[in-house]
Specification:
The chain is an alpha+beta fold and about 350 residues long. It is about 30% helix and about 20% strand. The structure holds nicotinamide-adenine-dinucleotide. Nicotinamide-adenine-dinucleotide binds next to loops. Pfam families: GFO_IDH_MocA (PF01408), GFO_IDH_MocA_C3 (PF22725).
């Protein structure tokens, strides 16, 4: 455990029963093969670059960098050094999202033609003690929450070809609702509502509404409409909950996710709702993939494509023009049914099957 602020590293090391040391000492330790980068977004590329230069694999919090150009430089550096980059989010590995992927891959709703996706709320100022950065350039709902949502769509439908978007700002300032600065106002200098249209290389068109200007709504996170039916996909900010499917206009059927790993609630939100939140399993997959010599799922190519799309949403909202997405990526390998981290281990899976 290391932090530019030694007291922060010390506190976390004590809480989790691990050693704390300086950033330099951690990077110089030959026994460490992979470093998880949990710094703030503006520091992601610089810190990941130092980890790669030290000859270690890196798993970064999202986004990979604050710009796609920064992320591309990082990927080139990792290739030159022969190390891997992994990147959050890993929520698409959750039971609800893998069960949805299996339904689509099995053709249950046919070819997906269109759909909608939404992440709508009043934003972070009610609960976050220092919410300033959410409302400045580099913040906003698309860059902050978009990675979870767009990554899951790419997992389900493949890469995105083009984007069109508009944006708006619902409020000129926000009032902090908790902590020592409660009552203080924060200026809003970046859009807080986006309406986007994502066109996939496979042909599907999905509308994407992302806003921090909404008090209440009745939308589900993701609805997909296919030639054979419709699918409701739970919130990709978490790992669990039940997808629902309708076959050729029939009643909604609950989709059993219990055969898949990482769907069990393990955290209670401020609202009292119990959710499955198994963040960091992407790192477990990456470590297992390195040992087995296979591709890891939450990989830099996927993260870069998603970052390209998020940047394009902002660019299209500014210019009013459609923006083509130059990058592409493979859909990550689906996870087999099974329980816990063993689903990542090919050797364990083969032994179970025989
Ligand atoms: N807080 C959450 O609920 C949450 C959820 C999902 C993802 N994330 C992501 O996790 C990351 C961290 O978020 P957070 O809320 O923990 O932030 P934080 O500000 O609480 O912690 C970040 C830490 O990084 C350290 N740091 C900054 N620059 C550094 C550098 N150059 N070298 C070493 N250490 C450095 C800071 O001192 C700080 O202790 C962000 O990318 C965020 O998007 C956070």
């Amino acid at each position: 455990m290391a932090d530019i602020d030694a007291s922060a590293a010390g506190a976390q090391a004590e809480a989790f029963g691990v050693r704390s040391r300086t950033v330099e000492a951690l990077l110089a330790d030959p026994q460490i093969g992979l470093v998880v980068n949990l710094t703030v977004p503006a520091a992601h590329a610089e810190v990941s670059g130092r980890i790669i230069e030290a000859g270690k694999h890196v798993y970064s919090e999202k986004p990979l960098g604050v710009s796609a150009a920064e992320a591309r430089r990082l990927i080139a550096l990792a290739q030159a050094r022969g190390v891997r980059i992994g990147c959050a989010p890993d929520t698409f590995l959750g039971a609800a999202h893998q069960a949805s992927r299996a339904l689509i891959d099995a053709g249950v709703i046919g070819t997906v033609l269109s759909g909608s996706m939404s992440v709508l709320s009043r934003g972070m100022e009610a609960w976050h003690p220092n919410p300033d950065f959410f409302f400045r350039p580099g913040g906003g709902p698309v860059l902050d929450l978009g990675p979870y949502y767009v990554t899951q769509l790419v997992n389900l439908l493949g890469p995105i070809a083009s984007v069109a978007a508009t944006s708006g700002m619902g409020h000129a300032s926000r009032t902090i609702g908790s902590g020592p600065r409660a009552g203080e106002t924060v200026p809003v200098t970046t859009p807080t509502s986006y309406s986007a249209l994502l066109t996939f290389r496979g042909g599907a068109r999905i509308s994407f509404e992302a806003s921090w200007d909404v008090w209440k709504h009745q939308r589900v996170p993701i609805e997909l409409y296919g030639t054979e039916g419709s699918l409701l996909v739970p919130d990709p900010n978490f790992f669990g909950d039940e997808p629902r499917v309708s076959r050729r206009g029939g009643d909604w059927e609950r989709v059993d996710i219990s055969a898949y790993a990482f769907g069990t609630p393990n955290r209670t939100l401020r609202t009292g709702r119990a959710v499955a939140d198994h963040r960091s399993i992407g790192v477990v997959d990456m470590v297992s993939a390195i040992a087995e010599g296979r591709a890891h799922r939450a990989d830099a190519g996927l993260a870069l494509h998603v970052l390209d799309v998020l940047e394009a949403i902002d660019a299209s909202a500014s210019s009013g023009a459609f923006v083509e997405i130059s990058s592409t990526c493979e859909r990550p390998e689906p996870l087999p049914a099974g329980s816990d981290e063993a689903v990542f281990d090919t050797a364990v899976r083969s032994a179970r099957a025989s």
